[in-house]
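Tutorial handout. Part one gives the primary structure; part two gives the three-dimensional structure as tokens.
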Amino acid sequence: MSWYAGLDIGGTKCAVTLGAPHEDNIDILAKRSFPTPSRWEDALEAMFQAVEALSRENGLSMEQLKGVGVSCGNPLDAQKGLILSPPNLPGWDNVPVTRLSQERLGAPTHLENDANACALAEWRWGAGRGSQHMVFLTFGTGMGAGLILNGRLYRGRNGNSGEVGHWRLSEFGPVGYGKLGSFEGFCSGGGLRQLGLDLAHQAVQLGKSPLYMAQGPDQVSAKTIAEAARKGDETALKVFELCGRQLGRGLAMIVDIINPERIVIGSIFARCEDLLIPSMQKELSREALHDSLENMLVLPAGLGEQIGDYAALSLAVGE
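Part two.
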């Protein structure tokens, strides 16, 4: 049986996933994850060993491994197969990951940034299936985009396409991607936390006590703010109303520039769409070209919490 391997490299966790093609989908056969070692040499060795061990445990022959996909945060050089010092991976300087993988595992290896990898996975197997023009937004630790244009992944001149998190949406606001009031500042896990703390400070001055502050500021997160919002907390609801409004503004810019059929959004949006959609939709309708909005859908990621596994496997399968 032919099979593929996906390697997902993160700042805190690495994951290895094995998958086998099944009709127009892929079946996940096995997965192993572990904390990211401090040295890149140790991390790659651990992932290669995990591929070999999982293949043995599942009765798979290494000779039938058809491809390996590596998903990692930017910056990287997909064409040369190099990881180029991502900020969350100190010491990963010019790491020739595709060459090392091909030498060790004996299969073609493809490297791509995580947003592009997720875009491919959602386009092939998730909420973007059947579209020709799709944008995927991460909306997790950061805000980045993967672009599928005319049925192909678009990378740009040097792989920096889709860096929508760097857009400045407001002169004032949370800091994200090193910029005050950026799309990432308003629409990311860290951005929601910043908004939550800022609005809580204002609320306390008005004699109010937001529910999500009950355990102290160190415990404030997108998750705790969402939990408070669903209990009707006024300040928490205001946080998501503001975040949704800026999300709609960012989406309107994407709609006007790209004119996509679908915008698929992962992570926090997929978990909190009930809190974000009302203000997002209002702002999107107000700001974007109406003709472009016709038949254009904004959808949560169809692959859910497993999107990282499918993302790396989508690179192994190829475009």
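Part three, for discussion. The first strand starts at residue 3 and ends at 9. The mean pLDDT is 95.
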